[in-house]
């Protein structure tokens, strides 16, 4: 069984994450519990940054925090010198609570509200990635009214389709995101932004999808954006100083996944930009990227406690855990696949086929179908790997289940960074029905 980051098996046969026994963590904090191997996060961040440095390219590596948002992860990203990609007022507020350097915050989203945009101006963030004409008009108006400068990128759809799940492709022409690069929308947006006195147009942005394993789609996108930038240079003598190529770099969830090392994605994209800049005599732009899943995905492991067992003779055996689609919606939403192990018996043969079911009242609440595990008994701790991205951030209170606790573990130390929700937390926004006063006849 392949392990991730600092994970190993100790002399007790227990899974160890960040130098700490996972079974002990489950006993201390309860389950479900999301454990982040922060050393792996740091390693991934350094890998992206060092690749650019070795190539002599000015760059910003922005953590795409929709993958997992919290004060603590923002603080960790700041420690590692990362920038930050936020997509809502809520994520921006969290970044402010974490005192993340405002000049390194980039604000995304396809339907930013007037209130959210004003908030971005209040916080004096580093850049707004403009997604559509309505937003562009609002940003221009707010900047002019406040007489406040704002840096902007134009998000474009380059017409590149990546080989990934249809729900998480975003770079093709039929997308809710961005200005189309081929039908004149991007040129019109350029004119509007270029003429705005309080906007500083930095350049172009694209994001072609998520969980992508090959580099061809990234290099084609880089070529498409560089070609448009060259046209604007020739036609308007305008030079884009920033080229943001987004994220979407795949990770390994199961043995069937074969992602490249993060550095290889970066190197091949950057090489295209270097070559085109040289051949066209185009000033080399600063390259920005936005890894999210590839920073936190395989750094996260969710621990569950096994409960009931149901055998359907000749069909399958179900093992239920104390979580499910309420803390990890991806299997139900995307048919996403995961790998699991019995954390308290890692050295036992994992040769029993079972289906790990959640406790939500939905037949589709299955975390892993036909998982290979050691023989599971009630009370065992199950570890589901690579749950660091798009799990807690997409978690909900279906069936009024509380969201799990989240901890960071590194070098034998562990720290609670999000406490477990309580029943009181779940009901605190509820209001009692106001009874009508019956009038006396």
From TrEMBL:
Any Pfam family the entry gives = Orn_Arg_deC_N
What InterPro entries is this protein classified in?
Answer: Ala_racemase/Decarboxylase_C (IPR009006), DAP_deCOOHase_LysA (IPR002986), De-COase2_CS (IPR022657), De-COase2_N (IPR022644), Orn/DAP/Arg_de-COase (IPR000183), PLP-binding_barrel (IPR029066)
Record-annotated Orn/DAP/Arg decarboxylase 2 N-terminal domain positions: 46-296
Q: What function does the entry list?
A: Specifically catalyzes the decarboxylation of meso-diaminopimelate (meso-DAP) to L-lysine.
The family note in this entry says: Belongs to the Orn/Lys/Arg decarboxylase class-II family. LysA subfamily.
The annotated subunit structure for this chain is: Homodimer.
Q: What name appears for this protein in its UniProt entry? A: Diaminopimelate decarboxylase
Organism listed in the record: Sporosarcina jeotgali
Q: Which gene encodes it?
A: lysA
């Amino acid at each position: 069984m392949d392990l991730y980051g600092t994970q190993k098996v100790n002399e007790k046969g227990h899974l160890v994450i960040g130098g700490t026994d996972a079974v002990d963590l489950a006993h201390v904090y309860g389950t479900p519990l999301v454990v982040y191997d922060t050393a792996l996060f740091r390693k991934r961040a350094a890998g992206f940054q060092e690749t650019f440095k070795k190539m002599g390219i000015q760059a910003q590596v922005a953590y795409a925090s929709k993958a997992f948002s919290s004060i603590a992860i923002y603080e960790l990203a700041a420690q590692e010198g990362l920038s930050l990609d936020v997509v809502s007022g809520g994520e921006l507020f969290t970044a402010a609570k974490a005192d993340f350097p405002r000049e390194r915050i980039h604000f995304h989203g396809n339907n930013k509200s007037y209130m959210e945009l004003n908030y971005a101006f209040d916080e004096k963030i580093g850049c707004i990635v403009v997604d559509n004409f309505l937003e562009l008009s609002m940003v221009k108006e707010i900047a002019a009214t406040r007489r406040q400068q704002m840096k902007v990128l134009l998000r474009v759809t380059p017409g590149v389709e990546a080989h990934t799940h249809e729900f998480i492709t975003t770079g093709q022409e039929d997308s809710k995101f961005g200005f189309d690069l081929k039908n004149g929308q991007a040129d019109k947006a350029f004119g509007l932004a270029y003429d705005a006195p309080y906007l500083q147009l930095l350049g172009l942005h694209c994001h072609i999808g998520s969980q992508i394993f090959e580099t061809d789609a990234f290099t084609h996108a880089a070529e498409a954006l560089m070609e448009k930038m060259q046209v604007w240079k020739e036609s308007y003598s305008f030079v884009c100083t920033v080229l943001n190529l987004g994220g979407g770099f795949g990770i390994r969830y199961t043995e069937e996944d074969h992602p490249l090392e993060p550095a290889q994605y970066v190197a091949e994209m950057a090489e295209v930009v270097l070559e085109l800049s040289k051949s066209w005599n185009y000033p080399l732009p600063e390259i920005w990227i936005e890894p999210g899943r590839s920073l936190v995905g395989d750094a996260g492991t969710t621990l569950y406690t096994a409960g009931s067992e149901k055998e359907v003779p000749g069909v399958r055996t179900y093992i239920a855990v104390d979580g499910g689609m309420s803390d990890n919606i991806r299997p139900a939403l995307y048919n996403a696949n995961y790998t699991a192990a019995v954390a308290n018996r890692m050295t036992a043969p994992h040769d029993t086929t079972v289906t790990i079911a959640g406790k939500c009242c939905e037949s589709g609440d299955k975390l892993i179908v036909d998982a290979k595990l050691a023989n599971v008994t009630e009370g065992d701790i199950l570890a589901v790997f690579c749950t660091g991205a798009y799990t807690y951030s997409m978690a909900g209170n279906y069936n009024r289940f509380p969201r799990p606790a989240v901890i960071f573990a590194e070098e034998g130390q562990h720290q609670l960074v999000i406490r477990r929700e309580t029943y009181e937390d779940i009901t605190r926004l509820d209001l009692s029905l106001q009874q009508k006063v019956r009038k006396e006849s």
